[in-house]
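P.,

For your records, the input lines for the assembly:
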Amino acid sequence: MTPILSTKGLTAFYGDFQALFGVDVEIAPGETVALIGANGAGKSTFLRSIMGLIRVKPEMIQLDGRPVGGEPPHRIVSGGVAIVPEGRRLFAGMTVEENLRVAIDNASGRDGTWTLDRVFSLFPILKEKRREPAQRLSGGQQQMVSIGRALLNQPRLLLCDEISLGLAPRVIREIYEIMPEISEAGTAVVLVEQDVSLAKQASDRLYCMLEGRITLTGRSGEISRDQIAAAYFGGSDAVA
Amino acid sequence: MQWLDGLIQGVLLGGLYAQYALGMALMFGVMRIVNLTHGDLMILLALIGISLSSALGIGPWMVLVLLVPLAAAIGWLLQRAVLNKVVSEDPLPSLIATFGLSVALQNAMLQVWSADTRSLPGGGIEQASWQIGSIYIGVLPVIVLVAAICLTGGLSQLMSHTRFGRALRASAADVEAAAMTGVNPKTVYALATAIAVGVLGFAAVFQGLRSTVAPADGAAQLIYAFEAVIIGGMGSVWGAFLGAMVLGISQSIGFRIDPGFGILAGHLVFLLVLAVRPQGIFGRN
Amino acid sequence: MSQTQPLSEPAVTVRTQTASGIVAMVIGAGLIATLLSLPFWAEQGTIRSVVELCCYIAIAQMWNLLAGYAGLVSVGQQAFSGVAAYVTFILAQNFGINPYIAIVLSLAAPAILAVPVYGLLHRLDGPYFAIGTWVVAEVVRLITTNVGYVNAGAGMSLRVMTQFSAQERAIGICILCALMLIATVGGSYWLLRSRYGLALTAMRDNPVSAASQGVNVGRLRFLIFVAAAVGTGLAGSIYFSSQLRITPPAAYGAEWASIAIFIVMIGGIGSIEGVLIGAMIFYFADQWFGEYGATYLVVLGVLTLFVALYLRGGLWGVLTRVVDAPWFPTRRRLIE
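Structure tokens returned:
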């Protein structure tokens, strides 16, 4: 089966500063993959490269085997990728429903698995607050809008950048509880997480990054804490 | 009675200024670009309209029908060829680029149309008026005001209830997030500029009918548009409309105090607003 | 001229002067001396056009300081040159003050005007600040046009100048021009080499991070705005005093802004060298092609557009990529 996403020797630069050094990652349709690593390991850069926000060579990123590296973000979205960006990035000055509608307006060609009603049934609180300006919601509610917005792009691959960051444990649990429903819809998910045990629990497979390189990969259930610690902080080569 | 007349004429004048200001409010709301060719484009369109009218022997409404699509096309081209290259956090490149373009446009118009002032023949409509008591109300200025209200209402609806309007506001709020949600900002920007300049097509016809145009007049129109947007409060089309009313009334009342004081009064009200309420009269904090 | 400051422990020195800088300074001194000698050998027409060139350089350098370093893009600097020139005419013509002293005294006017203007406009950001300055210039023009004391729209003539012979006038103007260049170009150079220089350069590159590094961006911007107003005012006073006539449209015309922007953008924003190169180009272009009027201005406008789109650093930016020989070195280098 062709992977939905594969990166081949992905390198990325911010000016003269190199942030990624040949990253190879493969995501199969429908699977959930966690990407962990310390701050500055290159996780966000990796997601930004996929979304077309950083200029990379075309063949470095492939969607369904088709080279798409460096294409503008809206083309990536119409190719079936959506992102829940770090910091939520809601559209200030627009209501909850309007935020969601922007995604509906610009959804990928895939049939409407996700509807406004389905997002509202995932997060009932959003239905209540649909007419409120998005910036007036609590952090957790804003995160729900951001997830809903990404889902309404009808992705086959959903990228989640640090969705638990800054949220209360109860809210994190609430948000992670919906992950199975997303997977059941056939959507592959990449979870970028700082919380290693959360990432391990919620994923089928796992990649660990350190200083712009993948230092560990394997099935989430089979990787030991020690292996992760070594890959996370460096030291010995650890490939499970 | 003189003051009531001043007020009424000011509101009517404001209708014309609103047509200058709408496009600027739209473009600034999205791209944070002040397009210094704003006034020159209007003058260019008016001169093209006047030439079309005499070359084809058509009336002002037919000119309007031809001019608005042409204006929109010019706006699209301007955004694609120039402004998309200079949109950034740093305002300098867009300012300098449109400044250069403005100088070039003004002088090119001078070459083509000479420095003469011209106006668009309206077939008598420009003289028609209603008399109420001792006050004369021109038919044309009323049409201009009604057109301005319709354009403002239309734009406002477009912004709040259409796919394009949502994409525009999303790009204005966070261009990168909008792109990651599937919006193509360059297309949205080009469309926004096309609409903004398209509105100038209306302004051009009405300016040509109501008074005169000459190649160097663009600077004044740019300043009026800018003042209306700031007075009203940035970012909303109805704010720009109301700002244009305030500007028109200030100039009209000022003119009745002393003919040399009219335009100056508008500028002074603008500076006053800037001093006491920099977010604009109708703007939120 | 080379300044070396020993730092603490290691044998490292900070060098801020270069060979090219010393050569440029010698040439600069020679040019100033030539300027001062003009009245004794040059024709009236030559002197007049050199005075114009000096005014262009001064106005452009002041605009460069504003836009290139302080991030204050103004298209209304003619408010300051016009006001200073008008005050010169009033002091000399209506109060009988010696016109050369009047030129110096008139500098108080742009300084005083700059304070409330900055107070009013500084909260407008970027492009809005620019048009705001333009409105101010329009207001000053309209007020001048309506004030009978300065002969309203008809303008004023500097008849008191007839008390001097042509050569005496030329000597006075050339001395003032030399002082103006030393004050605007030399003063900017001194400023950029002083301890404010680093702050200004930091501010040019990134105002937010400069502020976080302890640069008082607001205060520095204010001071530069006032200083630029005074420098621009001096150029206006000298220019119109040599023309002997002033009218509101001439004094407050937007052409002044066009000239400054063209010179700085073509030459290279954020460098003194760029201003000098741009001024020379504009001066010769004006001499050779000025007769083509509108067509010539179309070309100037398109050139400015081209530079803004494709050549942000101007000609000096291109030159520095080829050879690193600054005429006004402001960088600090560590030498072991």
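Two observations worth noting. Chain A has ten helices and ten strands. The first strand of chain A starts at residue 5 and ends at 14.

Regards
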